[in-house]
């Protein structure tokens, strides 16, 4: 039960963030004090009694258009963003040669490079990075090309961002470095790459978790997470650094019956 509450806490945050990132929560949908049953100009006649022609002419088009407004294509998406999304290197180079701003943002704050990273469009990302795109530019929910590539295990793009000035100390919306979600999601080679790059293995995020804790709490105890725990321990992770409730990695491993991970922690002196 203890893990379920931790997982639900984390999942709710991520679900809402994903909805925002994917455009399923339009920014204009905010309370505006609109009376859904307005009165006519006379002050007494309900809107339902107004001439049908008026309803048809003015209200029906608005109702019909709402799905298109809420869920249609991002109207702020530029040609460069579209080219990045489609992995169209020729179009990218053509647009940049005409002076298109390389780090221009769309409605969600994404640069073209971040759009390419979302889709793991390696060729587009390479063209943009080599042309000088900012690998640390963040969108409205604090994702950058570097952070997103690390979290999703997009290793090719991650390596390019590391070679072009990725900020190893930058953090996502949860206050975590790229290493923490990479560890939680079982991206072994990504974890290895980030450790070799020098990311702090004991960084604590807003939830009070390190990469080691997330690998155990949100991992499945299988071969990938076991390898990640081994990599983190070998890199000098503090095996006794507890979460906010005072629960150590070893105790979490034992509660979840992750015997192989437990052995690694015990051998490293975990308490």
Task: Note the topology.
Blueprint: H1 2-21, H2 52-71, H3 79-85, H4 89-97, H5 112-118, H6 122-130, H7 145-152, H8 155-163, H9 179-184, H10 188-197, H11 211-217, H12 223-234, H13 249-255, H14 259-267
Helix pairs in contact: 3-4, 3-5, 5-6, 6-8, 7-8, 8-10, 10-12, 11-12, 12-14, 13-14
Descriptive key words:
271 residues; 14 helices; elongated; Serine Threonine Protein Phosphatase 5, Tetratricopeptide repeat
How would you sum up this structure, described in words?
It is a single chain. The protein has 2 domains: 75-167, Ankyrin repeat-containing domain (Serine Threonine Protein Phosphatase 5, Tetratricopeptide repeat, Alpha Horseshoe); 173-271, Ankyrin repeat-containing domain (Serine Threonine Protein Phosphatase 5, Tetratricopeptide repeat). Helix 7 packs antiparallel against helix 8 (155-163). The chain is mostly helical and 271 residues long. The chain has helices spanning 2-21, 52-71, 79-85, 89-97, 112-118, 122-130, 145-152, 155-163, 179-184, 188-197, 211-217, 223-234, 249-255, 259-267. It has 14 helices and no strands. It is 52% helix and 0% strand.
Describe the structure concisely.
With 271 residues, the protein is an all-alpha fold. Helix content is 52%, strand content 0%.
Topology order in helix (H) and strand (E) letters: HHHHHHHHHHHHHH
Structural class: mainly alpha
The number of helical runs is: 14
Q: Cα distance, first to last residue?
A: 22 Å
If you compute it from the alpha carbons, what radius of gyration comes out, rounded to the nearest whole angstrom? 24 Å
**What name does the CATH topology of the largest domain carry?**
Serine Threonine Protein Phosphatase 5, Tetratricopeptide repeat
Using the alpha-carbon principal axes, give the shape. Answer: elongated
CATH homologous superfamily descriptor of the largest domain? Ankyrin repeat-containing domain
Low-confidence stretches: 23-76
Q: What is the CATH class of the largest domain? A: Mainly Alpha
Instruction: Report mean pLDDT, rounded to a whole number.
Output: 82
């Amino acid at each position: 039960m203890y893990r379920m509450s931790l997982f639900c806490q984390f999942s709710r945050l991520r679900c809402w963030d994903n909805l925002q990132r994917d455009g399923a929560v339009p920014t204009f949908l905010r309370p505006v004090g609109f009376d859904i049953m307005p009165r006519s100009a006379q002050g007494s006649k309900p809107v339902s009694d107004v001439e049908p022609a008026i309803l048809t002419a003015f209200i029906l088009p608005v109702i019909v258009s709402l799905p298109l407004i809420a869920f249609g294509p991002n109207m702020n998406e530029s040609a460069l963003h579209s080219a990045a999304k489609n992995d169209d290197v020729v179009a990218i180079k053509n647009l940049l040669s005409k002076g298109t701003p390389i780090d221009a943002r769309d409605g969600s704050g994404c640069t073209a490079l971040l759009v390419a990273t979302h889709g793991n469009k390696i060729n587009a990302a390479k063209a943009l990075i080599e042309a000088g795109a900012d690998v640390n530019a963040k969108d409205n929910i604090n994702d950058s090309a570097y952070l997103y590539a690390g979290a999703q295990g997009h290793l090719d793009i991650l390596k390019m961002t590391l070679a072009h000035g990725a900020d190893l100390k930058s953090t996502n919306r949860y206050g975590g470095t790229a290493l923490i979600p990479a560890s939680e999601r079982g991206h072994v080679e990504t974890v290895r790459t980030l450790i070799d790059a020098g990311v702090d293995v004991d960084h604590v995020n807003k939830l009070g978790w390190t990469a080691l804790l997330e690998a155990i709490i949100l991992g499945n105890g299988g071969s990938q997470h076991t390898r990640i725990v081994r990599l983190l321990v070998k890199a000098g992770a503090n095996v006794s650094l507890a979460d906010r409730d005072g629960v150590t990695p070893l105790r979490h491993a034992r509660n979840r019956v992750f015997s192989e991970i437990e052995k690694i922690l015990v051998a490293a002196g975990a308490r």
